[in-house]
Amino acid sequence: MQEKTSSRWCRLVLLPLCLAMASTYAATDPLAPTARWSAYTAGRASTPPMGWSSWNAFGTDIDEAKILGSAQRIVDSGLAAKGYRYVNIDDGWITRREIPSGRLVIRADRFPSSVTGGGSSFRPLTDKLHAMGLKAGIYSDLGRNTCSQAYSSDSSDLPKGSVLEREVGLYGHIDQDLALFFGDWGFDFIKVDGCGLRAYGADSPKVRSGEYRALAPVLDLESVTRSDIPAVQAEFTQIDAALKRHRPDGDFLLSLCVWGAADVRAWGKNYGNLSRTSDDIRPSWTRMLSNFDSAARRELYGHPGSWNDPDMLFIGAGDFDADHLVEAKSHFALWAMLNAPLMTGADLRKTPQPLMDIFGNADIIAVNQDPAGNQATLAYDTDDVQVLVKPLASGQKAVAIFNRGFAPFDVDLTAEQLKLRKDAPVTLTDLWTKADATFTNETKLRVAPRETRIFRVQGTRALAQGVYLSEQPGSVNPAVDGVTTPQADPTIFRSSGGWTGTKGAGERPMYAGWGGARADSTPYGQTLRIAGTTYAAGIGVLANSRLEVRNAGHRRLSAQVGVDDSARDATHGVTFMVYGDGKLLAKSKPLRRGQRAQALSADVAGVKVVELVARSAAKDNEQLPVSWGDAALLSSGQTD
Ligand code: GLA
User: What is the per-residue pLDDT for 490?
Assistant: First the structure.
């Protein structure tokens, strides 16, 4: 009633003032509906990028022959035809920045074709890649200097010259460098690293010795509180704007590489097409686990246009070489299920055929490239075995059963875990062997140590008339996830043997994001439960949150809403609201912990963006997880 009266006043009397007030309200109130999808959609990343990068195989020891050799194998082997298109030059290509012009100069000894009429240009190389039907990627850094300049002990591949000439990063040169990369040189992809904003504090040895100028660190991988998140975001905003200026046709990819630091696992999706969720992968089993874990519970933070990036594939080396095909296949299948970019990091000129066959598994590529863009959710999650389920655009699903441990495991896979009817047949097609098997209700599958079995699944959906929101994570964006104090995620495997070996205390939990929104789970990994009733399907999120949901033609949004039983706060009420393209469609009464779920139902016919808001006067949202139980988009206008 009150809302009606005030909006009438607005229309009749005070329209300009009200419009101004409304926009201030929207600007200052993050829970106000926006009627738009706010995750990043610029660039060309409607499906996860595929290709090759020089870093894992070569580090900074790169040259034209190595890059073109791998590019040629991508084409000759048929991988290009299967979608591997980006050929990315990582760190190690720059010799200096020319002073005073500021123009970057390529290492001529390594890239002979870059010497053109007295100048330095990658255009001959990108022309060649483009003529091969491929795309070209380049590497830079947010700061004045790159990662190898900070961490390499051997300076032979590093930029040369005076301190200023060796400042080859984007800092202070964003527009100039992006004009060069995308305008002059014709690149299509840029990876932007963060070491320049991390490793060049006044007290770092290389700054103290006068080798590099100091730049106060704003990124700290070990601590969110020591990171200046807005400063990092501001850099990416400028890069995005420059990309749009210098690649106006929109044919670009922006890859953020701040390794899960500065809480980027929560906001990377708003600033670029890919965002690294962890520190660098290594060719070691346990390191692969760390990187996998850093993305595996972030299913709602990856979408078409904005993917989680657990780093490049390390298939071809160490624990993933041709003598470790079980591990190599697991690595590939897991990355496919996570919608990770499929960036091979091997020297493809020498990669044995069995590994090439892994990269070339068209069925698994299709799982990764599925247009619905749903990252797999964890239907079963333990330290031994995980079951990942990925709904596909066709209505079918993919399932991966991952044995992390050292013993064979007999895994019971149930129709229920797949959100399929248990009284109807379910057919599994093995994406490695192509064998079919049919079961009803449940089946037992033997999974060898470190093996990932991966299947396409055909069955009858448990929810006949629609889709649970947790079955379409690629269309749910936690625009505001309610987190007030970013906390390190304890569920990420902490591997040994990183940059510091086993000296010190070991890797502390360091990737913020714990408490973020989850599919079929509370933000802290519990079963969704409101006043004693559990929900196998739904979205768990903190209070004072706003979820954006894309609606592709469904007519009704329905959910059972309430404060989750796991909440510590039993005093504050939470009001749940459903908006359709900015208009309030349904609203609950204020609900406290222990109160029964309230059914919310809203007519969303014709609505493009549904927003789910949980609002409370509480300040400590971490104490107040809420559940959108059974949240679903239904095709009929009737409540199910
Ligand atoms: C960082 C990145 C790597 C690679 C190197 C280059 O460590 O995370 O992927 O680009 O820098 O120096």
Answer: 97
Question: Which residue segments constitute the domains of the chain, with CATH numbers given?
Answer: 2-9+49-276 (3.20.20.70), 377-466 (2.60.40.1180), 467-634 (2.60.120.1060)
CA distance 119 to 435: 57
Instruction: Please identify every residue annotated as catalytic.
Output: 193, 280
Cα–Cα distance, 576 to 569 (Å, whole number): 17
Residue owning the nearest CA to atom 1 of ligand 1: 147
The total number of residues written for the chain in this structure: 640
pLDDT < 70 positions in the chain: 1-27, 498-499, 637-640
Question: What pLDDT is stored for residue 205 in this prediction?
Answer: 95
Q: Measured between alpha carbons, how far is 497 from 75 in angstroms, rounded to an integer?
A: 36
Atom of ligand 1 nearest to the CA of 259: 8
* 503-548 per-position pLDDT tens digit: 888 889 999 999 999 999 999 999 999 999 999 999 999 999 999 9
Nearest alpha carbon, ligand 1 atom 5 = 147
Q: What atom in ligand 1 is closest to the CA of residue 90?
A: 10
| Ligand 1 site residues, Cβ closer than 6 angstroms | 55, 90-91, 146-148, 193, 257, 259, 280
Q: How far is the CA of 128 from the centre of ligand 1 (A)?
A: 25
Q: What is the DSSP string of 239-302?
A: HHHHHHHH-TT---EEEEESTTGGGHHHHGGGT-SEEE-SS---SSHHHHHHHHHHHHT-GGG-
Q: How many CB atoms lie within 10 A of CB 364?
A: 24
pTM given for the model: 0.95
Please give the angle made by the CA atoms of 102, 104 and 106, to the nearest 5 degrees. Answer: 160
Which pLDDT score, from 0 to 100, does residue 570 have?
98
Residue among 88, 139, 152, 280 to mutate when testing ligand 1 (max atoms within 8 A of CB): 280
Helices vs strands, H then E, count in the chain:
14, 35
Residue 490, class by beta-carbon neighbours within 10 Å (0-12 exposed, 13-18 middle, 19+ buried)? exposed
Closest Cα to atom 6, ligand 1: which residue? 91
Q: Which ligand 1 atom is at minimum distance from the Cα of 148?
A: 12
- Cα 511 from Cα 501, distance rounded (Å): 19
